[in-house]
């Protein structure tokens, strides 16, 4: 009984920790993105609220909470209300399997530094992240607006073109780590990160998670300049805020998955493991922001061309080559 | 595949270098309320009514500025002084409408209406932006310190006809003697 209680308390504590850290990071990533983008475009970015604009996320939240929660007259009410939650919740759910440090010994028990250490963590990630597109699709469809619908149609077509390569780019990782557990995958990278062992898979995965996060150059469902706001055109106030924060939670989550699968997780010299993990995640997020400052948006036929004609063959070939090399080395 | 593969690759990678370089440069933004930009001398903003070098109002209420105004923000009432000199009884510019195009200053024959570089006209009450003649009149000649319309044209207001410097007496058209 005490054992069960201990486990429950532990999981709740880890949930609270992750929830707090991820939301905090998401809020400040918005600020970081605006500041870095600003500096890259020779502007300052937000610097009025608090010292260096550090209170900007708070001001944004107050603004979003006090805005009118608008419901379009012909919208499908329940789907419209639920959709923003799907985006934010699926992004948070993925984080449940992400190990952010080595196992810890507490009261004589070995505890993984993740909410759960699933033995099918990779499959769980792929499954839950595919659900994230429902937020986009249902939100756009339920709004009963042509721009939103176009946005969600684009979201779907984008999903079918990158999701396959996303899964396939992880197959070499699983082959090399010989496990579906994220913890084992990190442990397999103790000496050399998979980025160096299999850069092709890493590159394909990077492009796919760029598409997964709906960010430039793959922000087709949003496409402000073409579709007003795409799938969230009709959303206002905190519902828009949920979509927005969901996007940045997703950024943190995808950054940590990139870290886990290819950058060696928490492994690194001198610094504590969790710090290394955080540094790597922030570096991936920084890369995403940098990419946003540099590249234009792709048309969606270009994205589908890229997904089906380039990334899919490349990742299939990569599986073949990785398999052959592993077989040749007798591993 | 595109025929310009190398050009495309370069075009994809070049922005990364440009943005990275910009990251370490000083932003070009002027932090407005604290820092103010040095405006050009001929910047067009708030309008003023100037005086001639003798201190009299330049405006002769000819309505050319209000006719030239594309947004109809200038209005006035013309009247005459005892000596026959025209002036504006009231003169009103609605700065909530004014687009600072400067066409009124181009139209003005007496150089009375001129632009200044003062652009900070924002306020909470639109009615406070309706400037009357007292608000518009200034105590200087604006950008031309010597021009005096009546001295140039010689209309007998400040001095009788022909009495101004560089003038000859007007011809008596009823006298046929050479």
Could you walk me through the main structural features you see in this protein, from its secondary elements to its overall organization?
The complex is a heterodimer of chains A (331) and B (178). Chain A has 331 residues and is mostly helical. Chain A has one domain. Chain A has twelve helices and two strands; from the N terminus they run αααββααααααααα. Chain A has a two-stranded antiparallel ribbon. In chain A, helix 1 runs parallel beside helix 11 (273-294), helix 3 packs antiparallel against helix 4 (121-142) and helix 5 (146-177) runs antiparallel to helix 8. Chain A is globular, with a radius of gyration of 20 Å. Chain A starts with a helix and ends with a helix. Chain B has 178 residues and is of the alpha+beta class. Chain B has a domain at 47-149: 2-Layer Sandwich (Alpha-Beta Plaits). Chain B contains five helices and five strands, in the order αβαββαββαα. Chain B has helices at 5-23, 64-68, 103-107, 133-136, 149-153, and strands at residues 47-49, 74-80, 86-94, 113-115, 130-131. In chain B, strands 2-3-5 form a three-stranded antiparallel β-sheet. The A-B interface holds A 36, 38-44, 290, 293-295 and B 12, 15-16, 18-20, 22-23, 25, 27-29, 31.
By oligomeric state, this entry counts as: heterodimer
Provide the low-confidence segments of chain A as ranges: none
CATH class of the domain at 47-149 in chain B: Alpha Beta
Overall residue-averaged pLDDT value of chain B: 84
Kindly, what is the distance between the CA atoms of the first and last residues of chain A, rounded to a whole number of angstroms?
Answer: 43 Å
Mean pLDDT of chain A: 85
Distance between the termini of chain B: 96 Å
Number of strands of chain B: 5
Rg of chain A, nearest Å: 20 Å
Low-confidence sequence ranges of chain B: none
Count of individual helical segments of chain A: 12
Helical amount among residues of chain B, as a percent range? 10-25%
Number of domains of chain A: 1
Which chain pair has the greatest contact? Answer: A-B, 12 and 13 residues
């Amino acid at each position: 009984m005490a054992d069960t209680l201990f486990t429950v308390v532990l999981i709740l504590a880890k949930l609270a920790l992750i929830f707090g850290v991820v939301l905090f990071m998401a809020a400040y990533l918005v600020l970081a993105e605006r500041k870095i983008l600003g500096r890259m475009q020779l502007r300052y970015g937000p610097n009025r609220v608090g010292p260096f604009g550090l209170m900007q996320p708070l001001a944004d939240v107050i603004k979003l909470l006090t805005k009118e929660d608008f419901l379009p007259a012909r919208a499908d009410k329940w789907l419209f209300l639920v959709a923003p939650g799907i985006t934010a919740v699926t992004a948070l759910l993925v984080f449940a399997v992400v190990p952010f440090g080595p196992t810890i010994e507490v009261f004589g028990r070995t505890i993984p530094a993740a909410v759960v250490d699933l033995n099918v963590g990779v499959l769980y990630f792929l499954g839950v992240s595919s659900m994230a597109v429902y937020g986009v699709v249902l939100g756009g469809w339920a709004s009963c607006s042509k721009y939103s619908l176009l946005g969600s149609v684009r979201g779907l077509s984008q999903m079918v073109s990158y999701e396959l390569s996303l899964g396939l780019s992880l197959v070499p990782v699983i082959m090399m780590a010989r496990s579906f557990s994220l913890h084992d995958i990190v442990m397999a990278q103790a000496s050399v990160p998979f980025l160096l062992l299999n850069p092709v898979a890493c590159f394909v995965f990077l492009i796919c998670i760029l598409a997964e996060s709906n960010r430039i150059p793959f922000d087709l469902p949003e496409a402000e300049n073409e579709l007003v706001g795409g799938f969230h055109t009709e959303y206002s106030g905190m519902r828009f805020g949920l979509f927005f924060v969901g996007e940045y939670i997703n950024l943190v989550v995808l950054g940590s998955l990139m870290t886990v699968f290819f950058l060696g997780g928490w492994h690194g010299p001198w610094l504590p493991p969790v710090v290394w993990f955080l540094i790597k995640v922030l570096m991936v997020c920084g890369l995403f922001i940098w990419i946003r400052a540099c590249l234009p948006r792709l048309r969606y036929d270009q994205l589908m061309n890229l997904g089906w004609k380039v990334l899919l063959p490349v990742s299939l070939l990569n599986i073949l080559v990785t398999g052959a090399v592993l077989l040749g080395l007798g591993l | 595949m595109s025929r310009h593969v190398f050009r495309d690759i370069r075009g994809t990678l070049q922005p990364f270098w440009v943005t990275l370089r910009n990251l370490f440069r000083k932003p070009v933004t002027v932090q407005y309320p604290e820092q103010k930009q040095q405006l050009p001398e001929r910047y067009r903003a708030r309008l003023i009514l100037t005086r001639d070098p003798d201190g009299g109002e330049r405006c002769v209420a000819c309505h050319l500025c209000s006719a030239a105004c594309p947004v109809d923000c200038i209005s006035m009432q013309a009247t005459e002084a005892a000596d026959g000199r025209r002036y504006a009884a009231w003169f009103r510019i609605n700065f909530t409408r004014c687009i600072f195009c400067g066409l009124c200053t181009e139209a003005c024959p007496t150089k009375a209406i001129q632009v200044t570089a003062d652009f900070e006209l924002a306020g909470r009450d639109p009615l406070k932006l309706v400037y009357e003649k007292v608000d518009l009149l200034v105590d200087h000649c604006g950008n031309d310190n010597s021009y005096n319309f009546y001295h140039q044209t010689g209309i007998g207001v400040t001095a009788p006809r022909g009495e101004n410097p560089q003038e000859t007496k007007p011809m008596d058209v009823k006298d046929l003697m050479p």
